[in-house]
Amino acid sequence: GATIGILGGGQLGRMLATAAAELGLSVHIYCPDTDPPAAAVAAGTTIAPYEDAEALARFAAAVDVVTYEFENVPVSAVEGLGDRVRPGPRALEVAQDRLTEKAFLAECGLPVAPHRGVSSPEEIAGALTDLGGVGILKTRRMGYDGKGQVRLVPGVDVARAFASIGEVPAIVEALVPFDAETSTVLARGADGRTAAYTAPANEHSEGILRRSTVPGPLTAGLEAEAQRLTADVAEALGYVGVLAIEWFVTGDPANPLVANEMAPRVHNTGHWTQDAAVTSQFENHIRAIAGWPLGSTARTADAVMLNLIGHDADDWQRHLDTAGAKLHLYGKRDTRPGRKMGHVNVLSRGVDFRAGG
Ligand code: ATP
Ligand code: MG
Ligand code: MG
User: Fold this and answer.
1) Is residue 241 within 6 Å of ligand 1 at its C-beta?
2) Which H helix or E strand runs over 57?
3) Is the CB of 176 under 6 A from ligand 1?
4) If you measure from the C-alpha of residue 154 to the centroid of ligand 2, how many angstroms do you get, rounded to a whole number?
5) Distant-in-sequence, close-in-space partners of 192: CB < 8 Å, separation ≥ 6
6) 257-263 sheet: strands from edge to edge
7) Which of 69, 249, 268, 343 has its CA 20 to 30 A from that of 261?
8) What one-character DSSP code corresponds to residue 324?
9) Rounded to two decimals, what is the model's pTM?
10) Which Gene3D superfamilies match (predicted)?
11) CB 38 within 8 Å of CB 28
């Protein structure tokens, strides 16, 4: 069978490699970090910096198609691999910069929060005034799990806020008052066909996803709208693979869905699909990049996905005998606060997926 190359060796790479193995495909991981979680389930692993052009070229020669599981892989590394990378470098480039990303999503017809690009305390103060006195300051690049973000309230010390994110180019976003958060995880095949999963209710604390529940908060009409808009983004990028859009659900009939951000990869809010969908997001990503037809995204059960973050995972054994619980651990040795160590999918009522829904 074919060999799939994955840039990045974290838990997403690990779960992609497992899905590939189940389809009879092998995976070769390329990543700069020692002891990557994905290495344990991959047929091969190269540990080298993304800037090492020779190592990258050897990796590329050993695989049939390349994908990435981490959106901060340098675009230059991906461009050097030519057209064997799915999704392509444009998706990565857009998703790496919050300002570019918002402009692109808006161009595709997705409502986004009012925002301003800023690179000084004076600009932050001006943006905050424009946006009504409250907002969130975020680094344009490299943020994830709420890192590089700070809330701005009236009277805030803007110089201190700027210092706290490292005085790098940033964005100030208006605070979106939301009833719920959700996400559309959508697969697009090499033939341009798309299939999307039920959008869950996503709960965060301290900027990190804690829990995703399906069915989620969207009416059938909004679900269809979110899927249509996500497909538009995928189409505009000529995207092949799994793409996620995170949404705020506002409760405002005039503007019910506001896009927060995109992820050009499989997504934490799609982990429930491993145990409660006919085809998981990981399998569908592999199918798409391998040029295979997509599998059914139909949901087979109601489910709650609980992230095991930091010391949440210390007593992982307790999930082994919980009715309906399926435990997934990432094999990470060091427990650190805020580090994603695993997740549990807790299934409840079964759904007759043949009837739809
Ligand atoms: P990840 O990529 O891991 O999802 P991130 O670091 O890119 O995280 P964001 O998605 O930008 O972070 O923000 C994390 C969370 O903070 C959001 O899911 C939401 O709960 C809250 N948040 C972010 N931006 C806004 C906003 N403009 N208005 C209201 N809440 C927000
Ligand atoms: Mg993000
Ligand atoms: Mg996010």
Assistant:
1) no
2) helix 53-61
3) yes
4) 25
5) 235
6) 194-196, 180-188, 241-249, 257-263
7) 343
8) T
9) 0.96
10) 3.40.50.20, ATP-grasp fold, A domain, ATP-grasp fold, B domain
11) no
Specify whether 350 is located in the same domain as 233: yes
Q: Tell me, yes or no, whether 167 and 187 share the same domain.
A: no
How do residues 47-79 score in pLDDT, each as one tens digit?
999 999 999 999 999 999 999 999 889 999 999
The CATH number covering residue 310 comes to 3.30.470.20
According to DSSP H, which parts of 44-167 are helical?
53-61, 75-79, 89-95, 98-107, 121-130, 158-164
Residue 253: asked if its preceding bond is cis (omega within 30°), the reply is no
CA 208 centroid distance within chain: 12
Amino acid of residue 321: D
pLDDT tens digits along 262-271: 999 999 999 9
> In angstroms, what CA-CA distances link 4 with 17, 51, 78, 165, 356?
9, 20, 15, 36, 32
Instruction: Judge contact between 284 and 316, C-beta under 8 A.
Output: no
ipTM confidence score? 0.98
Examine the domain organization and report whether 207 and 323 are in the same domain: yes
DSSP 294: P
Quote the domain boundaries for residue 288: 180-355
Tokens for 219?
A: 């009416």
Is the CB–ligand 1 distance for residue 143 below 6 Å? yes
Q: What's the per-residue H, E or C state across 3-17? A: EEEEECCCHHHHHHH
Amino acid at 299: R
